[in-house]
Design goal:
mainly alpha; elongated
């Protein structure tokens, strides 16, 4: 069973890379590749557990040391190949991240300016003569600033 799950994980990983190359949404196949990798590891663990329960110590001593290294290697390769499209996408969209950061900083600065303006309005007009909407907006901005 572990062999079937492992082959499905390998096929899903290569489909993931192929779909990324075609420019389509690859996230489902990435999840499938990683999920089948995890299922393969669980199946191997179950096989070892069955060998322990049936007290097949010689089989365990022969198989487990080698399979441990193989499983570590294949799991790391599977993870790296499945998340490679994410890193490639981040590398290609580095300018987009910079633009997003700039917009976020601008919004924070604008929010701070609006907050200061509302404080000045309240001080100038007095607390009782300010409309409830301004008070609520000021409270929400203060809460967001604390968080």
């Amino acid at each position: 069973m572990w062999l079937v799950l492992g082959l499905i994980a390998i096929v899903a990983t290569f489909i993931n890379l192929y779909i990324y190359n075609k420019g389509k949404d690859y996230k489902l196949t990435m999840a499938m590749g990683l999920s089948f990798t995890a299922l393969t590891l669980c199946e191997m663990y179950s096989q070892v557990s069955n060998s322990v329960n049936s007290e097949e110590w010689v089989a365990l001593m022969d198989v487990v040391p080698t399979m441990e290294k193989v499983l570590w290697f294949l799991t790391i390769v599977s993870i790296l190949l499945n998340i490679a499209p994410i890193f490639l996408e981040l590398k290609n969209n580095k300018w987009l991240l910079s633009l997003t950061l700039f917009i976020k900083c601008t919004v924070v600065e604008l929010s701070s300016t609006v907050y200061k303006f509302l404080v000045i309005v309240i001080k100038f007009r007095g607390r009782k003569s300010v409309c409830p909407t301004i008070k609520i907006t000021l409270m929400m901005m203060k809460i967001r600033e604390i968080l």
